[in-house]
Each structure stands twice: as structure tokens, then as C-alpha cells.
Amino acid sequence: MEAFSDLGFSISTEARNAGSVSQGNLNQGMTGMKRARSIVVGFAAFAMTAGTAAAADVPAVVVAPPAPPPPIAASFDWAGMYVGTQIGIASYTPEFEASALGGYNFVFGRFLVGFEVRGGIFVPGPGPAYAWQWGAQVRAGVFLGDRALAYVKIGGHYVFGWFTTGALGVELAVGQSVSLFAEVQTFLPLGGPSMRVRGGVTWHPGN
Question: φ, ψ for residue 174 (rounded to 5)?
Fold first, then answer.
């Protein structure tokens, strides 16, 4: 009996000891899990803090506003009055002319019609002799863009008598109110045709 009692006491003691060991192991496991969770939370907080600090260290990117578009050149107004001056030379003889001119243009879409008068001096040869000349012509043209005009003229011209004239020319706007022109004009005198090359500048006060 005593043997059985001692055996029972021994078993009970071992069971209590085993329970104590299991409880200790469980407590240690829970403590380890708590520590691991604390480490994870601390690492996450450190990562967030480091990321915020790094973002604060990055300089702000300033986006410059877009550059304004280049100014658009104002359109040239061909309609209305113009005045100017011109010089010309003959194509095969030493003739020279210089004249003042004036006219008026009417614009219809891409087309222009108008009239022009001019007067000045005409030097028929190398000597000092000269003659006064004047004339009047009508003009019709078509615009080659906003600042260029191709035109034809026909009319009358007086120098030592009246002659019929015709011309082909181009005119270019070079400023807000100034244009340059060049033309070839044909005279039809009684003795046969002749030709002059002219160039000049005009001012359009309406611009």
C-alpha cells in the first residue's frame, strides 16, 4: 500500500510539474509574440518617420508657367489712301525718272482695285535736259498672303505727248504702314514700244 501511495504521489507531483512547465512555456510564447509584435510596430513607425523625413528633405518642384505665345503681327490694311515716291530707268537707253505719286485702294476679299496719279521729272538722255511728266492709271491686284500684292496697271502718261501705258508689279508691306513696290512699265509711243523698270516706297496713313 505504501508503495502504491508513493507511486501515486510521485505521479501527481510529476503531473503538477509538467503542468507548470507547460504553463511556463505558454507564458514564454505569449511574451515572445508580444515582443515580436512590438518590434514590427516599432519598425513600421520608424519606416513611416524616415519616409516623412526624406520627403521633407526633397525640395519642392516648382513648375514654371508656360511661356506666352509670340505676338502675332498685325494685318496690313491696304484699303484707303496712300502716297509715295518712285524712281525708274529705261531698259535699253539712259533715261531716268523720279516722281511723287498718290492713289486710293478698294479691297474686296482677296482682290484690290484702285487708281493712281503721279508727276515728276523725266531725263531723256545723259545731258542735263529734262521734261515734266505726269500720268494716271487704274490698278487691279490679288493678294499673295496678308502682306504681298501682285497687280497690273493700265492708263495714260504724258511726256512730250500722251502715251498709253501698262505695268506689272508686286508690292510688299514692310512695316505697319509702309510698303515697297517694283514694277515693269511699257510705253507705247508712236515710234515703237519702250520699257522702264521702277521701284518705290509708299506710305498708307490709314494704318
Answer: -115, 0
Dihedral class, residue 43 (left if φ above 0, else alpha if ψ from -120 to 50, else beta): alpha
Q: Strand, coil or helix: what is 29?
A: helix
Helix, strand, coil proportions of the chain in percent (round to 5)?
25, 45, 30
Per residue in 127-136, pLDDT (tens digit) is 667 888 899 9
CA distance 63 to 54: 21
Residue 197, C-beta contacts closer than 8 angstroms, at least 6 positions apart: 88, 89, 91, 182, 183, 184, 185
Please tell me which residue, 54 or 119, carries the higher pLDDT value.
119
To 5 degrees, how large is the angle CA 135–CA 118–CA 91?
75
CA 174/CA 73 separation, integer angstroms: 11
pTM, to two decimals:
0.62
59 Cα distance to chain centroid: 34
Contact yes or no for 105/80 (Cβ under 8 A) = yes
Considering only CA atoms, give the Rg of the chain. 52
Angstrom distance (rounded) from CA 149 to CA 158: 27
Q: What is the pLDDT of residue 4?
A: 39
User: Is the pLDDT at 86 greater than 80, yes or no?
Assistant: yes
Q: Which CATH number fits domain 80-203: 3.10.580.10, 3.30.499.10, 3.80.10.10, 2.40.160.20?
A: 2.40.160.20
pLDDT at residue 110 is higher than 90: yes
Task: Quote the CA–CA distance of 117 and 123 in Å, as a whole number.
Answer: 19
